[in-house]
Amino acid sequence: MNCINVNLSTKTFNKLKVLVYEISGIYFSEQKKYLLETRLSKRLSALNLLNFEDYYNYLKYSSEKELEIKELLNSVTTNETSFFRDMPQLKIFVDILKQIISTNSFGAYKKIRIWSAGCSTGEELYTVAILIKENIFSSNIEFEIVGTDISEKVLSSAKNGIYNGYALRNASEAVLRKYFNKIDDDTYSIKDEIKNITVFRNINLMDVKEIKLLNLFDVVLCRNVIIYFDAESKKKAVVNIYTGLKTGGYLFLGHSESLHSVSTLFKLVGIGKTPLYRKE
Which of the chain's ends, N or C, has fewer CB atoms near its CB within 10 Å? Predict the structure, then answer.
């Protein structure tokens, strides 16, 4: 598909960035005007529109606007991820799971629920599932691992579970043999035993009603997600995540992220390069 070579005016950029922000919480600064222009050019071509002002009007007033808003979100979200990303943090995640198991009297049966918020194409979610298979051996514990994202496009890719060698660059040969089917020299598909303990949902972190329908989680991973939000959106997202966590539950952020000046709802229990927060 060829992109239309049309410039995005400052006036229309401001209208589009407000619309994107209101829907998703994602904030495009003036410095990212060209990025938004580049990402949305394909949508002009797909809809046979002549300029970005027409595209904005389409999003606001077309009878097909709900469908196009989904395409808009697919276009503006950033989906950089990989398997076994930031292993020092993931090792602490495994330790937290073991701690939850050892400090609770589960009786005959217990379910531990984990939420990958902003799961993108599924690498983090499947990594979590593999780590559980490799490290947690309690027979009376069931794990439910839920991945959510605002983009239906990346969720579709996650459900397919097919990845190239670059996405799997941090995976060992043993893990590849055990949990993936090799399609060709550079393509692998996740095995059903991992897929079967994962669930994907199209959820907007700005929508607390949708999050409440997920019910409560023991652990939330929201790594490298809120860095794309402005201050107000970060606060709203964190409040919504807090709503989705059980009392005593844990929140993992990306190694460069912090709730400092964002929220005082959580207690900081991890330091250094592993931001870890607990709901008191």
Answer: N
Q: Quote the distance between the C-alpha of residue 45 and its chain's center.
A: 28
How far is Cα 103 from Cα 9, in angstroms, rounded to an integer?
A: 58
Contacts (Cβ under 8 Å, ≥6 apart) of 5 = 41
More confident residue, 84 or 105: 84
SS3 content of the chain, % helix, strand, coil (to 5): 45, 20, 35
Determine which helix (DSSP H) or strand (DSSP E) holds 176, and give its type and residue range: helix 173-179
How many of the other CB atoms lie within 10 Å of CB of 30? Answer: 9
Predicted TM-score (pTM) of the model is 0.85
Q: Which two tokens stand for residue 231?
A: 């201050």
Q: Which residue is it, tokens 């239906």?
A: 152
What is the homologous superfamily of the domain 87-279 according to CATH? Vaccinia Virus protein VP39 (3.40.50.150)
Domain boundaries, the chain: 10-76, 87-279
Average pLDDT, the chain: 91
Measured in degrees and rounded to the nearest 5, phi and psi for residue 11 equal -60, -50
